[in-house]
């Protein structure tokens, strides 16, 4: 049985759901395992939970998807790792923006993937309104493919890394561009950057609307990706533009720290960000993200 994973608001709080034919079914009821009541519980038991869901028989009950409120698929992920400058087309546009020479492929220099972290409390759901006004005057957008870890992962090879991915979702790495560099600190100072203010304000990580199991995605490096602001397209690329692919990112992260079920790896954004256009989000804007085989994620700015 084919399904998508979501977290929905039930009378007793958030519950893990499986979307089948536009109806949402409670995962714990489908599998008969109480530990599958939450998305973190499902992911902590991933191979078995996936097998149970695949084998489950839909009784046609459930609730119409239109009648439930979907929350972020993982309301409080373990850790959110974000790849920095990881698309060739985006790296090129940022080099032009900052009048820097175009850097060679980091593989040729023996370099490894580079990540920063967003706090899990920053996650927002599809349809949420994001209050950007107190956070930044130059708020930027970034469509990203996000890989959700489904098995403990330590020192895995590049070849085996995707075996540890439960599924994929969409994320928007909202970025407060004017908050990334501390004022009154010399540009050459190692203390100039402020990654917390830049990337981890409330609502800075819209994610969703659901998780599509990895087997239904197939190759994560051949997916169309688009982002619109008020129905005007700003980003239009493909996940094949990644510099370090998802395998390489997971392998490298796992060489430093154990990745756990419910951790999320945001794999980078393509060209078309606001900074390169000198355009930024304002109150009232609607941002829509689309990734092939997954769906759309929409939020309004306030």
Question: What is the element layout, followed by pairings?
Answer:
Elements: E1 4-10, E2 13-20, E3 23-26, H1 27-31, H2 39-44, H3 46-55, E4 63-64, E5 80-83, H4 88-97, E6 115-118, E7 123-124, E8 129-130, E9 139-140, E10 143-149, E11 165-172, E12 175-176, H5 195-199, E13 205-213, H6 214-217, E14 224-229, E15 232-238, H7 246-256, E16 264-266, H8 274-277, E17 286-291, E18 295-301
Parallel strand pairs: 5-16, 7-13, 8-18
Antiparallel strand pairs: 1-2, 2-3, 3-4, 5-6, 9-12, 10-11, 10-16, 11-13, 14-15, 14-17, 17-18
Q: What structural category characterises the helix and strand content?
A: alpha+beta
- Into how many domains do the coordinates divide? 2
Q: How does the overall form come out from the CA principal axes?
A: globular
Radius of gyration in whole Å, from Cα? 19 Å
Description of the molecule:
This protein has 302 residues and is α+β, with helices and mostly antiparallel strands. It has two domains: 4-67, no CATH class; 80-301, Fumarylacetoacetate hydrolase, domain 2. 18% of the residues lie in helices and 30% in strands. It is built from eight helices and 18 strands. It has helices at residues 27-31, 39-44, 46-55, 88-97, 195-199, 214-217, 246-256, 274-277; strands at 4-10, 13-20, 23-26, 63-64, 80-83, 115-118, 123-124, 129-130, 139-140, 143-149, 165-172, 175-176, 205-213, 224-229, 232-238, 264-266, 286-291, 295-301. It has a seven-stranded mixed sheet. Strands 8-18-17-14-15 form a five-stranded mixed sheet, with no helix packed on it. Strand 1 and strand 2 (13-20) form a beta hairpin. It is globular. The model has no long low-confidence stretch (mean pLDDT 93).
């Amino acid at each position: 049985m084919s399904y998508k994973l979501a977290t929905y608001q039930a009378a007793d709080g958030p519950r893990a759901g499986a979307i089948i034919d536009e109806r949402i079914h409670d995962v714990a009821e489908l599998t008969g395992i109480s530990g599958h009541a939450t998305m973190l519980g499902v992911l902590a038991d991933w191979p078995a939970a996936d097998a149970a869901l695949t084998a489950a028989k839909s009784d046609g009950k459930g609730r119409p998807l239109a009648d439930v409120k979907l929350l972020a698929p993982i309301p409080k992920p373990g850790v959110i790792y974000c790849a920095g400058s990881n698309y060739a087309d985006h790296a090129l546009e940022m080099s032009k923006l900052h009048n820097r020479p175009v850097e060679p492929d980091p593989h040729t220099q023996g370099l490894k993937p580079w990540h920063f972290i967003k706090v899990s409390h920053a996650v927002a759901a599809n349809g949420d309104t994001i209050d950007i006004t107190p956070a930044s005057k130059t708020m930027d957008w970034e469509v990203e493919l996000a890989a959700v870890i489904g098995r403990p992962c330590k020192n895995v090879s590049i070849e085996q890394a995707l075996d540890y991915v439960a599924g994929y979702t969409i994320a928007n790495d909202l970025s407060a561009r004017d908050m990334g560099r501390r004022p009154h600190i010399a540009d050459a100072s190692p203390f100039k950057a402020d990654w917390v203010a830049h990337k981890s304000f409330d609502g800075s990580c819209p994610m969703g609307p659901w998780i599509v199991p990895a087997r239904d995605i197939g190759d994560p490096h051949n997916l169309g990706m688009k982002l619109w602001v008020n129905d005007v397209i700003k980003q239009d690329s493909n996940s094949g533009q990644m510099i370090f692919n998802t395998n390489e990112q997971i392998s490298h992260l796992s060489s430093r720290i154990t990745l756990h079920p419910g951790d999320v790896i945001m794999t980078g954004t393509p060209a078309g960000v606001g900074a390169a256009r000198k355009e930024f989000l304002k109150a009232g804007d609607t941002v829509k993200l689309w990734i092939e085989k997954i769906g759309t994620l929409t939020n309004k700015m306030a």
